Amino acid sequence: MYMDRETICIFGSKFAIFWKRVDAILRKIYTSIDIGSYSIKFVVLEYFNQKVYVLASHSVDSKGIKKGLIIEPNLVSECIREGMKEINEMLGIEIKRVIVNVPDYNVRFTEVEGHIDISQSEVITASDINRVIKDSIYNRLDDDYELVTMIPREYRIDNEKGIRKPIGKKGQKLEINGIMISTPKKNIYSVLRVIENAGLEVVDITIAGLDNYYEVHDKGLDKKDGAIIHLGHETTTVSIFDEGIIVGNETLQIGGVNVEKDLAYVFGIQVSDGRILKEKFASSHKRFCQINEIYEVKNTIGDVIKLNQLEVSEVVMSRMVEILSLAKKQIRSLTNHEINYIILTGGLTEIKSFKNLAYEIFGKDVIIYTVTTLGIRDNKYISALGMIKYFIDKMESRGKNVSMLDASEETALVTPNNKLKKDNVIINKIFGNFVANKEEK
User: Fold this and answer.
1) Same-fold call for 23-105+186-208+381-435 versus 108-183
2) What letter would DSSP give residue 221?
3) Could you say which of 238, 263, 364, 435 is the most buried, measured as most Cβ atoms within 10 Å of its Cβ?
4) Which residues pair with 344 in a beta bridge?
């Protein structure tokens, strides 16, 4: 068939418009903020064709945070503004909406059930999913607790059990069984306030244990019981999973900073120098160090001292054994089930010879997870990546098509040299818009 130039142009234009519409449907942009004691991490991902692609990542040193809790809100908001400014400059647009984690101290995991009748059409919709989730959590929260999320274990349609994705199926009665995650209101509100003060709107909240699983898991783990140990700067988090569902969590008040303080105390140096020793020189296991390796550092009175790798590693190993042993003991106190896997994550896993020490304490079946996402490849971003992946899974399972950018912002993101003006961000009040409608997204 012959087409003249004008016809080709018209056809090509319509084809381009069609694909632009398809692209808009398939492409989604998500931003997360992981608020940690040592640093605050920012990640922007694009979700396209069932895969995630890193658009931007950045971290800033934390201020105003102690052991994961916000102590000085103004300093935390300042750090978030600083980090988001860098992210916005990388992308050429202004990010306004984010997912954020909240402290998991005193978090509760409650098994809940709910049921609803299906409308006359008998076809289950996203609206029905929201209704049955609401029914499962109705009147289940204590006055001083707030909902984080509800994770479905299974849906039941009439007499059929074990359904994971009920949308589009037919039935007269829909039931749900799952785990409701809740945490003290002060844990949530403290985070929401600093995010709001930074000029951002919170789209969803999570906890670190949930985030970590969604970054490290695969389909094989979804059918097993196991544990994830996140070795952080000031704390160590132990999370228990039952066939992919988080059912227990505990935060231990010990982490990488204790190693740094030990080195500072033993050798009479600054804690900042202890951090450098830990990260650049020490070995987690003294058996795998070089006695002839020497590191020169000034002590607190200004004298230069020479430290060999063996004496430094002995100090580091002593504390590392304590941290890993406490975490192992915590697993036993959180569950009586047989543990099929243990995954170790976090910054301490990157110290030299960590694998050898981990094998000695947990056995050689232990998994040491390393981020391999193209564009990041840094373990400190595990939670920031995981919270986005959890949000994507959550929205898809509930039949929601959500992106954190509107059409004009997405156009600006993919159009070279077309940066949006930085208008003042006008955000809805979080406490009315977010908490009250938490499970309606």
Assistant:
1) no
2) G
3) 263
4) 229, 368
Going by C-alpha positions, the residue among 390, 349, 366, 321 that lies closest to residue 227 is: 366
Q: Which CATH superfamily is domain 256-319 in?
A: ATPase, nucleotide binding domain (3.30.420.40)
CB atoms within 10 A of CB 301: 6
User: 83-92, 352-361, 397-406: lowest mean pLDDT where?
Assistant: 397-406
Domain 23-105+186-208+381-435, architecture per CATH: 2-Layer Sandwich (3.30)
Separation between Cα atoms, residue 254 and residue 329, nearest integer Å: 14
Tokens of 26: 């398939």
**Distances from the Cα of 231 to the Cα of 27, 241, 252, angstroms:** 34, 17, 10
Give me the percent of the chain exceeding a pLDDT of 90: 70
If pLDDT is split at 50, 70 and 90, which confidence band does 413 have? low
Q: Which fold has domain 222-254+330-379?
A: Nucleotidyltransferase; domain 5 (3.30.420)
pTM over 0.90: no
For 306, the token pair is 């020479």
Domain boundaries, the chain: 23-105+186-208+381-435, 108-183, 222-254+330-379, 256-319
The Cα 416–Cα 419 span in angstroms is: 8
Distances (CA, A) of 237 to 121, 165, 250, 323, 426: 46, 31, 6, 11, 36
Going by C-alpha positions, the residue among 316, 384, 363, 377 that lies closest to residue 43 is 384
* Backbone dihedral region for residue 365 (phi beyond 0: left; psi -120 to 50: alpha; all else: beta): alpha
Mean pLDDT within 325-339? 95
